[in-house]
């Protein structure tokens, strides 16, 4: 038996995102997401579910498949809603979203360009930023921990990235990710000379580890890290394998007070996906890995 699922596929900085527009029970999200993001189905790096909101100030509720927060998925949903509402070329609209993993509403300013959308997102602020050293079996790893209420990022400054480093980071995420009291772990390999970010995102609930082409929350965390490190406001472009995003971080009275990211998003496909009604995850799925960097 096949289950029909309405979806839209979006491209925020090549962080390919599927939004499900069919109402489904929350306990079905993991199964549906694992199947629809696979290579033999629609294929993407992440999946979010569009749900109605009970908050009169919000336009929609975005529930990510692993319960995590995702800035790029917010951009994708804002673009989809703006397109559905008939936003005209070069017109700007404000869209407010309830999002899993975020305590407050997320505000998105969306502008329709000729071929895609430009979106600025007011991002959640981290609860804590601190320097630490992780004592690995092979060597110590200097990192900065950027901790949010429901997810955590490790910022590691690097000069170059090779296959061995990526494999070590993937092993690290799989090793410690399941033991963190968060929905998502990000390992952000950052070159401060070239302003280049290579993000690995691990979501334990989905058994998913992805070297993302672009990461909105990771971009925000780099901005937060730079503001914390330099004790000043930051506005800079962060280059990633899939493109470039802008981050703005306001730092006032020895603390971070505002965090925004901005990037482009395109709507690349919309239609119906066909999903098997029964999938044996333990036998067939395993870790979902995408490594195209």
Largest sheet: 8 strands, mixed, barrel
- Helix/strand structural class: alpha+beta
Question: Could you name the CATH class of the largest domain?
Answer: Alpha Beta
DSSP strand tally: 17
Into which percentage range does the β-strand content fall?
A: over 45%
- What value does the Rg take, in angstroms? 18 Å
Distance between the termini: 36 Å
Helix content: 10-25%
CATH second-level architecture of the largest domain: Roll
User: For the record, what is the CATH homologous superfamily label of the largest domain?
Assistant: Diaminopimelate Epimerase, Chain A, domain 1
Tell me the number of structural domains: 2
Order of strands in the sheet with most strands: 1-2-3-4-5-6-7-16
Low-pLDDT segments, ≥5 res: 279-287
What is the succession of H and E elements? Answer: EEHEEHEEEEEEHEEEHEEEHE
Discrete helix count: 5
Describe the overall structure:
With 293 residues, the chain is α+β, with helices and mostly antiparallel strands. It folds into two domains: 2-124 and 265-277, Diaminopimelate Epimerase, Chain A, domain 1 (Roll), CATH 3.10.310.10; 128-258, Diaminopimelate Epimerase, Chain A, domain 1 (Roll), CATH 3.10.310.10. It has helices spanning 29-36, 71-84, 163-176, 216-230, 281-284; strands spanning 2-12, 17-20, 46-51, 60-64, 92-99, 106-112, 117-122, 128-135, 140-147, 151-157, 184-191, 196-203, 208-211, 234-240, 243-252, 255-276, 288-291. The strands form two sheets. Strands 1-2-3-4-5-6-7-16 form an eight-stranded mixed barrel. The chain has a seven-stranded mixed beta sheet with strand order 8-9-10-11-12-13-17, with helices on both faces. A hairpin with a 2-residue loop joins strand 15 (243-252) and strand 16. The chain is globular and about 50 Å long. The two termini are 36 Å apart. The model is unreliable at 279-287 (pLDDT under 50).
